[in-house]
Amino acid sequence: MKKLLAIFCLALLTLGLWPPAEAPARVYIDITKPSSRKLPLAMPEFRPQGGSQSLGGEGNRILRGDLELTGLFDVLDPKTYLGSGAGAINPREWRRIGAELLVTAEYTQIGNTLGIECKLHDVTDGKLLVGRRYDGLKADLPAMMHRFADEIMEAITGQKSVFSTQIAFVRAEGGKKEVWLMDFDGSHARQFTNRGDLTLFPSWSPDGKLVAYTTYVNRRPTVALHALAGGSGQVILNKPGVNLTPAFRNDGRVAAALSFSGKTNIYLCDQAGNVGQNLTDGWGIDVAPTFSPDGRQMAYVSDRSGNPQIYVRDMASGQMRRITYGHKYCAAPDWSPKGDRIAFMVDIGGVFQVATIRPDGSDQQILTSGHGGGEDPSWSPDGRLIAYSSRSTGRYQIYVMTASGQPLKRLTELSGENSDPAWSPRGVIGTR
After folding, report:
1. What is the pTM of this model?
2. Is 197:216 a contact under the CB 8 Å cutoff?
3. Are 185 and 66 in contact (CB under 8 A)?
4. 33 within domain boundaries
5. How confident is the model at residue 10, as a pLDDT?
């Protein structure tokens, strides 16, 4: 099965119905802005050229869900459509209902095999933006739709989105906590670790092949690395005291909070567990490192001022600065892949909220106020979305919102408590 999946993924990468369209002169969405107007998009039923008609409905539903998750598109009500999307495209028909973009698809199913041709049209300028053909098995339909959703995003924004990503999170049930994985949209949730104790603070390697986490061994927190491809995970840091909150730097090294010296400071280690540079040296508790995309700065949590606050360290000079003020508790920082903001959780009136701030400490924004609060933010690899946990419904579940704070979707519907999401890099969706 893994071999078939690998072959299919290769086909997705190499098969194209048409050459890539030239970069459009029109600017569709300015992704440098925190929010933009939604683009009106029409997506009529996918047309069968043989095989099950229900398959087209399923493909349409998956693709629509992907595009709505971005927060960038207004998918128009099919009841308003004047055309069917079959045959030659009449841009005027679609412009009359307010559409600017049109997605059409035709598919052929023979037995368990599936071929589908997908197109994205600009009906304002009357041109084809993207056309792709995917071939595989019937079960591969979701992967095909995720792939085309990425093609749409690249055509509109110049960047692929999150449709080849997974989210790690911590699920607590029966007195145990284990790391679970799910696809970017909350589907295919499955248990990843089986430590039988407390497993916390998942963090992805830059290439998406490893997940680091804190796990308890003989009642002491240690740091382990776990290959996404399988295995049971290998403990790499088991120093006296605590070994907490691992995070990867862009060069693959791991930073973690260690207390073997008598103080809880952050150290930089290699993947074999050899402890290297001491990154903090205060008498407070320093934990929860997160690095800027270029690895030149590190944000972390320290209580050296009396209460937990967010600090930033310049990796070259060693200079540190506090960036959060006016709140008694700030924690769980996560640096945006764009490098421009740091997400974190902050106590406001006894309720944790997700906030973002610039690395220089300016322009703090509270994102989840009015939405039941939020904790443990994690940026998507394109820097447009934030996954977070909230117990607004009574139990912790994972949600996703835009970087400007627009709620999009609840991702988990699981029993127990589900928290501490960690969004993967791109390119790991096919790993099971």
Report:
1. 0.88
2. yes
3. yes
4. no
5. 32
CB neighbour class for 257 (10 Å; exposed up to 12, middle 13-18, buried from 19): buried
Identity of residue 118: C
Q: Under a CB-based contact definition with an 8 Å cutoff, are residues 255 and 249 in contact?
A: yes
DSSP-assigned letters across all residues of 242-292: -EEEEEE-TTS-EEEEE-TTSS-EEEEE-TT--EEEE----SS-EEEEEE-
CA dihedral 166, 170, 173, 175 (to 10 degrees): 150
Element (H, E) at 176: strand 176-183
What's the rounded Cα separation, in Å, for the pair 51 and 120?
23
* Domain CATH number, residue 78: 3.40.50.10070
Kindly report, residue by residue over 294-325, the tens digit of the pLDDT: 999 999 999 999 999 999 999 999 999 999 99
Residue type at position 206: P
167 SS3 class: strand
For residues 430 and 41, what is the distance between their CA atoms, to the nearest angstrom?
28
What does the mean pLDDT of the chain come to? 90
CATH of the domain at 216: 2.120.10.30
pLDDT exceeds cutoff 80 at 31: no
Tell whether 118 and 252 lie within a shared domain.
Answer: no
DSSP 8-class letter at 198: B
User: Are residues 226 and 147 part of one domain?
Assistant: no
Q: Does an H or E element contain 353, and which?
A: strand 351-357
Q: Supply the pLDDT for residue 53.
A: 73
The pLDDT, as a whole number, for residue 14 is 33
Q: Which domain holds residue 225?
A: 166-423
Q: What is the DSSP letter of 139?
A: G
Q: What is the mean pLDDT of residues 416-431?
A: 89
Closest by CA to 255, choosing from 346, 335, 147, 343, is 335
Indicate if 80 and 211 belong to the same structural domain: no
432 found inside a domain: no
Domain count, the chain: 2
Torsion over CA of 421, 427, 429 and 432, rounded to 10 degrees?
Answer: -100
The pLDDT, as a whole number, for residue 16 is: 44
User: Where is the domain boundary, 157, 180, 212?
Assistant: 157
Last residue of a domain, one of 157, 180, 214: 157
Residue 386 CA to residue 94 CA, distance in Å, equals 33
pLDDT at site 74: 94
d(CA 316, CA 328): 30
